[in-house]
Amino acid sequence: MSIVYVLGAGASHASVGTPLGPDLVWNYHEDCFQLSELFGDAAIETGPSFDNYRKFLVLMEKEFPELSGIVEKWDNKGINIYNLPTLQKRHYVDELLQLLQFKQDSQSMTLVRQLTFQHIVGSGMVGTNDLYERFKADVLAKIPNGEVSIVSFNFDSYLNEAPPGVTFDYLLDFHWREPNRLHYCSSPVAIPLIKLNGSFDWGICSQAGHLNLLHYFLRGDFYRHAKCNITSCQGVLEPLVILPYTDPSSKLSKLWAVAEEHLAKAERVIIIGYSFPPYDNKVTELFQRCLRSGTKLEIVDKKLLEDKDEAGAKTRLRIKYRALLPGVKIYEDHISVRGFEDFLLNGKRRKGKLD
Ligand SMILES: [Zn+2]
User: Fold this and answer.
1) Are residues 252 and 354 located together in one domain of the fold?
2) Which terminal CB of the chain, N or C, has fewer other CB atoms within 10 Å?
3) How many whole angstroms from 212 Cα to the centroid of ligand 1?
4) Which residues, by Cβ under 5 Å, contact ligand 1, an ion?
């Protein structure tokens, strides 16, 4: 049987605590630093770790009059920083990037990209990564060779080939590999891990486009000083990632073609923590093209605050997926709203009953 797991931000959030959309960038100071640093000594407060966050607040105050005063609150620190104005959808990073793209403000887009990197990388450091480890051991390792692949929309590298367990093939030709990544394996026995939006640990060189496979865990300031690792190359490195509304890079087009192939032949597709946001219309189109009426679709999501109860959450998802993928049958028992951990515990017991 051909199986494709589709992983979104919800999967990494459950495993390591990386930020979800509304929190992205905004909660940087809470997720990545100890309170003592926030309230503590001025040298730390003005240190480089906070530079981008303050610049971000300055940018937001300039763009949105209703956020007036946030820079002053930040500069005064104290409890004020937890009393930032209530955010609206248009303040979230995805919509902000759309606005900046429209204005062709590339400098501000770079700032938001850098801070996004710092936030995701910094917040994940404190998590245990237990769920991804169990996913590797309890799910992936038990599927016969060649029958499973993963399509991921996550930039982080918390699901990786570090032992113990399965290895992955990123389906890219790296020009250089960090010595700690000896277990990286580009071979038929490795599980394809198709990262359609790129990955923070894929450093691409400005001079010759050399692709560097870096360490799994990078510090938040890594790309401030990163140089290409190819001998005699003077290029600097940038993460090869595609954020919403930024640089529709052709560098990853090969991966999109492979994902299309895998999804089209899949008998089971299991979507974990991915929500098909409106700005990901390319992804929606990909799934619409590839999934067939016979594809067994399973959805692992989480109940939202606005859902009345679990039944309400399932109904919301059923309606959403019927509209999104009208040709695909959805089995009632194939929608779970108890998240990734519950799926790892109980997912295999679920049987399909046509809704
Ligand atoms: Zn280079």
Assistant:
1) yes
2) N
3) 8
4) 205, 208, 210, 228, 230, 233, 235
- Identify the CATH number of the domain in which residue 313 sits: 3.40.50.1220
Distance CA 83, CA 73 (A): 8
Contacts of residue 308, defined as CB under 8 A and 6 or more positions apart, other chains included, come to none
> Which three-class secondary structure state does DSSP give residue 334?
strand
Averaged over 215-222, what is the pLDDT? 87
210 in a structural domain: no
Domain count for the chain: 2
> What is the whole-number distance in angstroms between the Cα of residue 113 and the centre of ligand 1?
21
Looking at the domain assignment, is residue 212 inside a domain? no
Q: How far is the centre of ligand 1, averaged over its atoms, from the C-alpha of 169 (Å)?
A: 22
Both 273 and 347 in a single domain?
Answer: yes
Give the pLDDT confidence of 249-278 residue by residue, as tens digits: 678 999 999 999 999 999 999 999 999 988
- Give me the amino acid identity at 275: S
CA distances to 30, 154, 310 from 158, rounded to whole Å, are: 21, 9, 29
Range of the domain at 38: 21-124
Residue 227 C-alpha to ligand 1 middle, in angstroms?
8
Distance 155 CA to ligand 1 centre (A): 21
* pTM tops 0.85: yes
- Cα–ligand 1 centroid distance for 214 (angstroms): 13
Listed residue (107, 53, 90, 99) closest to 245, CA to CA:
99
Residues 6+ away with beta carbon under 8 Å from 138: 344
